[in-house]
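Late entry, written up from scratch paper. The run itself happened at the end of the previous shift, but nothing got recorded in the book at the time, so transcribing now.
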Amino acid sequence: MDESTDGRARRAAEAREARRAQILEQATEVFATRGYHGTSVSDLVEATGIARGTFYLYFESKEQIFLALLDALLRHVRASVRGVDRAPGAAPLQEQLEHIAIRILQTLVDNQALTRIIFREAVGLDRAVDEQLAAFYGELQTWLCRSIEVGQALGMLRPANPALAAACVLGCFRGVVVSQVVESETAIDVEATARAVLNLTLHGLAA
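Output as recorded:
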């Protein structure tokens, strides 16, 4: 393949990716306005301003678009989660966990429309979505469980069932996301909220 042919192929690929991103962006707005079940392929085609045939070159159905949107958000959240650094001179465990909680919450706030769609309509939507969400929450709970075990080994957390504690922390965080990001129209202080949730889950309400 000569240089000119290679350049054309690259530009074509870039154009295709840009069009796909445009469809996903417009689909997020339509889903957020109409709801998943109230949205038709015709609505999506109209919003993107492309021909129906062109639309089907990128996605076979609105379900496929929804899965792509879900996958993108979960990848962003996964990128925020890192293992606990136990090396000498590393930041204290609570500080590390705070930074991770802040990054996750900020990602959800930055993608508020999609977060609302997923929390309101994704559960029970179809088997593929349920499996993807279950795998994601399972990964988060496993990471939390390991982090708690590290904290216990360092003497920073009291003895407790790590799996049960991880489920409680995850449940608390999900509840805050629903009340502060999904259901609320008021902007939140992401850092203060994340720190408050983590402080509550680590230390409880006792004086």
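The chain has two domains: 1-60, 62-207.
(Scratch paper discarded after transcription.)
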